[in-house]
Write a structure and sequence with these properties.
Helices cover 34% and strands 21% of the residues. The chain is an alpha/beta fold. The protein folds into 3 domains: 173 residues, polyphosphate kinase like (2-Layer Sandwich), CATH 3.30.1840; 171 residues, Endonuclease Chain A (Endonuclease, Chain A, 2-Layer Sandwich); 208 residues, Endonuclease, Chain A (2-Layer Sandwich), CATH 3.30.870.10. The strands form 4 sheets. Strands 14, 18, 19, 20, 21, 23, 24, 25, 26, 27 and 28 form an 11-stranded mixed β-sheet that branches. Strands 10, 11, 12, 13, 15, 16, 17 and 22 form an 8-stranded mixed β-sheet that branches. Helix 1 runs parallel beside helix 3 and helix 2 runs antiparallel to helix 3. The protein is globular, with a radius of gyration of 28 Å. The two termini are 43 Å apart.
Length: 729
Amino acid sequence: MTHARDQSDTGTMASPVRGSDRFLNRELSWLQFNLRVLEEADNIRHPLLERLRFLSISASNLDEFFMVRYAGLREQLRAGITRTSQDGRTPRQQVEEIEVMVADLIRRQQVCWIDLRSKLQDERIDILRIDQIRKSDAKWLHQYFHNNVFPILTPQAVDPAHPFPFIPNLGFAIAFALSPQSGNGEPMVGLVPMPAFSSRFVRLPDHKSGVMRLVRLESIIAHFQADLFPGFVSTGHCVFRVVRDSDIEIEEESEDLITEFEILLKQRRRGRIVRIHFDVDAPETLRDVIVREMDAEPRDVMLLEGLLGMKDLSGLILKDRPDLLFTPYEARFPERIREMGGDCFEAIRAKDILVHHPYESFDVVVQFVRQAARDPDVIAIKQTLYRTTLDSPIVSALIEAAEAGKNVTALVEIKARFDEETNLRLARDLERAGVQVVYGFIDYKTHAKVSLVVRREDGGLRTYTHFGTGNYHPITAKVYTDLSLFTADPALGRDAGRLFNYVTAYRAPPEEPPALEKVVMSPVGLEDFLIAGIRKEADAARDGRPSGLWAKMNALVDGDVIDALYEASQAGVPIRLVVRGICCLRPGVPGLSETIQVKSVVGRFLEHSRIVCFANGAALPSGQARVYISSADWMDRNLKRRVEALVPIEVPTVHRQVLNQIMISNLNDDMQSWEMDAEGRYVRIQPGSDMPGFSAHNYFMANPSLSGRGSALVISEPPRLAPRRRVRK
C-alpha cells in the first residue's frame, strides 16, 4: 500500500504546512527528549541522588546518540551524501544543527553538575580536588594507589619507538608533557589509559566530621605521575575521553551470521572517532598531539569546563544514603496467581491476566517459564529473546526445560544494539543444553516479545501465551513501565505459533501478510493496519459519528502513519498521543493537526509500554473501543524492518485496565508531563493552582488493588489534556 509522502500527492491534505515542513527532524527531536531527561535533574521534587541519576542518564544517552546517530550522519557527510531526511535536511545541515544544540545541552549539564555538587556538600558528601585532602589521608591514598590502581595501569611513552596506544570507545586517558628530571635528554609525551573497571570516584576513609569524601580517580593518577614515569617531571597534563562510532552494518548475504557478528564486535571497539572531550585548560601542545595521533577531525574536539564523562556520576548514587533516594518500591505479585497457589496456568485458564510492570513484579514472567520447564505435561516452549542478562532466569529456565527433554526453541536476536555480545554468549549456552536456537532474519530484527507454552490437557493440547511490550530483562523490568498479557486464548496461541514459524522457516519475509487470526505483525501488515484504523476514525468523523484515537509509544517517526494522523485531524478526529521520546509530527497546526495533542511523560520510571486505542464509534472511552498493546513504536524501522507484534485486548476487565486505567492516567498526568508545540518545543505541564497534581507513577504505586482486578477509574469526560497552567522551564 502506498501513502502520500510529498507535496505533489498529499491527497486530502490542505494545510499551510506542506511538503517536508510537515515533519520535525528525528535527531533534533531526540535531543529535545534528552533535554527533558536533564530537566529532571533540576526537579526539586526528586531526592538529590535521584536528580544526580537523571544527570548521569542524560550523559549516557548523549554518548549513545553520538556513537550511533551522529556517527552515522558523519559517515554520510564523508561519503558526500546529500539525500535529505523526511523533514528536508541534508546530512550536513543535520550535523551542524546537532552540534549547536549539543553544545548548549552539554553546557546545561555542566551547570547542573555545579549546582548538584554544591547540594551534595550541603548533604555532607564532598567531591574533593587532590589538593584539598587532609594530610592525614595522604598515607592512606598512597597505599590505596599502589595496592589498587598502580598494578592495573600501563603508562606508555609516545615517541617514534612507541606508537600511540589505542583508546577504546568511552575510554579515558591522561596525557603528560614530560621532561627529564636530570635536565639531560628529550622531552616526551606520556600516556596513561585509565582502567575500565575501576570506580571513577574513590571514597576516602570516614572522618569523625561525618562528611563523606571522594576523590576522582584521574586526579589520583595524575598526582602519582612520578611513580608512573620515574625520572621525569610533568610540565603539564590533561584528561581526555573518546567517543567512537559504534554502529555496525551487516552484509546481506552473510554465510555465517554468528561468525560475522563476532568479527564486527571487535571492529566496534576500534570505530572511528566522533568526539574527543578535553579539559578546557588542557595544554594546546598535548591536545594537538592527541588529535593528530588519533586521526581525529577538528570538529571532533570539544573542550569542557567541568566534569568529563558524566555518565560515571552513577557511581555517586550511594546506597548508604537512602534519605537521598526514592523511597524503595516493592513490586506486587499478581493477586490472582497468588490466590491460585502460584499456579500460573490455572490462573490464566480462568481469564486473561494483564501485568503492569514495574508496579507488578517481573517474577511472574519468570515463574511462567519456570513452571513450564518443570511441568511434566508441558511438551514445548518457544521464546523470543531480544534483551536480557547473562544470568537471566528466563534463560536458566529454558536450559532446565531442554535438559528435561522438552522441545525448546529460542529466537535470539543477536542484532540487539549493544547487547549483541551478551546474546551471542547466551545463544552458545542454550545450544549446549539442547535448545533449538534460531537467529531470525539478517535484514529484519525480531523485536516481538512472545513466549509460547504447549501443554497436554484433557486429551489434547492447550497453548499458554505471553505477549509483552518490553524485554525479558529482569533489571530493566524494575524501572521500565511495560505490559505483560498472559492468555490461553486458542487463536492467540495459534498466532504466536505462526509468528515463530514465520521467523524460523523463511529466509526473508513473504510479500503478503501471514494468515493470522488476531495478532498483527510487521513488517508485513502492521503499518497498513494502523493506517486503516486511523482512516476508519476519520471516516466516522466525516459522517458525524463519534471518533477518537488515544495512543502511547516511545517514538513517532513513520511518515506514512503521520500523514494518516494529519488526514484524520483534518476530518475532525480528536487525537491524544503520549510519546515519550522522538516525535516527528507537528501537533496543533491550524488546518493540518489542530485536533492533535502530544505529551511526553518523563519521571521515576521509564515509560516503555505501547498502546493504541481506536474509539470505534464510542463517544467516551468504553468497552466499544478497540484496544491493542504492542512491541512496536511507530517508526519506520519497527513497521518496515522489524518483526513486531500487535495484540488485541478483548477480555472486558483487561480492556478496562488498559484503556480506563493506564491510558487515561498517562493522559491526565500533570506532575511528570511535558506538552509539545508545533515547532517541537516542550513546555512542562503544571497543575492549576485550584487543583491537586496527578502523577501516573505515584498513582499506580499507591493503588495495589487496581492491577489484575480489572477495576476502572471513574472518568467523567473524554480523555484529554485538561487545561493546565504551563510554565516554560
